């Protein structure tokens, strides 16, 4: 038996950090969106423990194996379809997809929520993320209203099938270096909490984009090249809005029509769709 699990990538627009001594309550609130590329995890029978990943290292995989106490022979293959370290939630998608796939393959008996809690613990242990896992349990635009792992935190999903997303990545940002810096944490949390409360009152795509841009300005995390491209996108009539992926040296922009982005002469521009389906898995 082979198991395949796809977990969509997740980009955060604005967030607040809510630390807690309990790793399952440690997390973030805020809003982001899912894209129709992510991490595809395949599990199959093997005589030894074998791991193949197309980019990055095995750190997240090893952490999930450790939490689940898996030492049995199995082949783990991961296709990471997005840039790593660039604000796409790839480590969370890797951890979540692997937890779900191993649970199915070895009949471990965990619920989907519990698999999410395992992935969230892996993220917290590694300092690689706070809110991506629970968001990746949702669809479309996802508002995280209560911090924590799936089953502890709370989300609301706002699917919208018409949204086309373009991104350009200028490099990596070390998530841990930001979310563990006391000065950044206060600036981020103050701005993110205010914007989350405003978004709860009136959730819309326009407000998500406006608030994300406001957050990127208030937190001063933008590089010059990111800021210039955001300003360019926001100056165009056919663009719904643009901001920075949190946390990544990446720009995202929304439009209602794919041709808007196809006609742009911007090197390294990637075009996606809003993912309104969420996690997909298959036994074969």
UniProtKB/TrEMBL annotation:
Domain of life, per lineage: Archaea
- Please name the GO terms that the record assigns under molecular function: ATP binding; kinase activity
**Keyword Transferase included in the entry's annotation:** yes
Stored Pfam families: GHMP_kinases_N
Q: What is its EC number?
A: 2.7.1.169
By its UniProt entry, which InterPro entries does this protein fall under?
GHMP_kinase_N_dom, PoK, Ribosomal_Su5_D2-typ_SF, Ribsml_uS5_D2-typ_fold_subgr
Report the family membership. Belongs to the GHMP kinase family. PoK subfamily.
Every GHMP kinase N-terminal domain range: 63-137
What's in the keyword line of the UniProt record? ATP-binding, Coenzyme A biosynthesis, Kinase, Nucleotide-binding, Transferase
* Protein's recorded name: Pantoate kinase
Please name the source species: Methanobrevibacter smithii (strain ATCC 35061 / DSM 861 / OCM 144 / PS)
């Amino acid at each position: 038996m082979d198991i395949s699990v796809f977990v969509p990538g997740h980009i955060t627009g604005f967030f607040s950090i809510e630390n807690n001594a309990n790793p399952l309550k440690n997390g973030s609130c805020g809003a982001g969106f899912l894209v129709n590329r992510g991490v595809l995890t395949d599990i199959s029978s093997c005589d030894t423990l074998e791991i193949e990943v197309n980019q990055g290292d095995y750190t997240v995989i090893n952490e999930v194996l450790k939490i689940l106490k898996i030492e049995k022979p199995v082949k783990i293959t991961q296709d990471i379809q997005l840039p790593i370290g660039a604000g796409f939630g790839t480590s969370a998608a890797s951890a979540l997809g692997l937890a779900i796939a191993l649970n199915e393959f070895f009949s471990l008996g965990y619920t989907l929520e519990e698999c999410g809690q395992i992935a969230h613990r892996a993220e917290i242990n590694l300092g690689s993320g706070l809110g991506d896992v629970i968001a990746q349990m949702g669809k479309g635009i996802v508002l995280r209203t209560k911090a924590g792992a799936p089953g502890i935190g709370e989300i609301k999903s706002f699917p919208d099938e018409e949204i086309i997303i373009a991104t350009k990545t200028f490099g990596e940002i070390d998530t841990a270096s930001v979310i563990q810096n006391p000065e950044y944490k206060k600036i981020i949390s103050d701005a993110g909490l205010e914007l989350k409360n405003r978004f709860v009152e009136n959730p819309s795509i326009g407000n998500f984009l406006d608030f994300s841009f406001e957050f990127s300005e208030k937190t001063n995390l933008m590089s010059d090249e990111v800021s210039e491209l955001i300003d360019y996108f926001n100056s165009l009539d056919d663009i719904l809005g643009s901001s920075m992926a949190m946390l990544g040296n990446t720009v995202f922009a929304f439009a209602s029509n794919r041709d808007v982005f196809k006609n742009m002469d911007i090197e390294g521009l990637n075009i996606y769709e809003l993912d309104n389906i969420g996690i997909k898995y298959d036994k074969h």
